[in-house]
């Protein structure tokens, strides 16, 4: 059947559907990440209040994610810089976009990893702890998690921020291990 066109109107040609991808706004992604993080807390409203008042909420490890605490000097050695912006870019690439929290006051980085890492990497963790003060944080520990909008280092605020913002996936344990090894190697060469 041929489409009818009113006099003076332009004929509309059928549009073929192209394969594509669903696009979500940045606000939608932040909201999804926020909800996912809050689901790790036994009292989500308490965590939300902490984010509003302090920009950081204490989150229990071991239900949704665990973390690897890496001292700043080790990360700076691997990155080849102590400039926060440069380190952030390095971590984004080295960990393939896996989420990392920076505590600029304590000069520590926290790579968010799967819940299983503290168990499956326990032997490596003992070696890391002895040689580089790296710690695996799992069940029974808490981590100060910045609100999802804290994505830039602010030297005046000195509040934890997302060095690599939370996205769709956690850090791969092997990539975190390689980062630690690279930092240890660079530091050993410098001594």
Give an overview in words.
By secondary structure, this protein is an alpha+beta fold. The protein has one domain (26-190). The protein has helices at residues 26-38, 44-54, 72-79, 84-94, 117-120, 122-132, 173-190, and strands spanning 56-60, 66-71, 100-103, 108-113, 135-137, 142-146, 161-164. It has a five-stranded antiparallel sheet with strand order 5-2-4-3-7. The protein has a two-stranded antiparallel ribbon with strand order 1-6. Helix 3 (72-79) crosses helix 7 (173-190). The longest helix is centred in the C-terminal third of the chain and has 18 residues, at 173-190.
Topology, number of strands: 7
Number of spatially distinct domains: 1
End-to-end Cα distance: 82 Å
Q: Write out the strand line-up for the largest beta sheet, numbering strands in chain order.
A: 5-2-4-3-7
Helix content: 25-40%
Beta-strand share of residues: 15-25%
Structural class: alpha+beta
Order of helices and strands: HHEEHHEEHHEEEH
* Mean of pLDDT: 87
User: What would the principal axes of the Cα set say about the shape?
Assistant: globular
Number of helices: 7
Oligomer state equals single chain
Stretches where pLDDT is under 50 for at least 5 consecutive residues are 9-13
Radius of gyration (CA) equals 22 Å
Sheet having the most strands: 5 strands, antiparallel
In short:
This protein has 191 residues and is of the alpha+beta class.
Task: Reconstruct the topology from this structure.
Elements: H1 26-38, H2 44-54, E1 56-60, E2 66-71, H3 72-79, H4 84-94, E3 100-103, E4 108-113, H5 117-120, H6 122-132, E5 135-137, E6 142-146, E7 161-164, H7 173-190
Antiparallel strand pairs: 1-6, 2-4, 2-5, 3-4, 3-7
Helix pairs in contact: 3-7
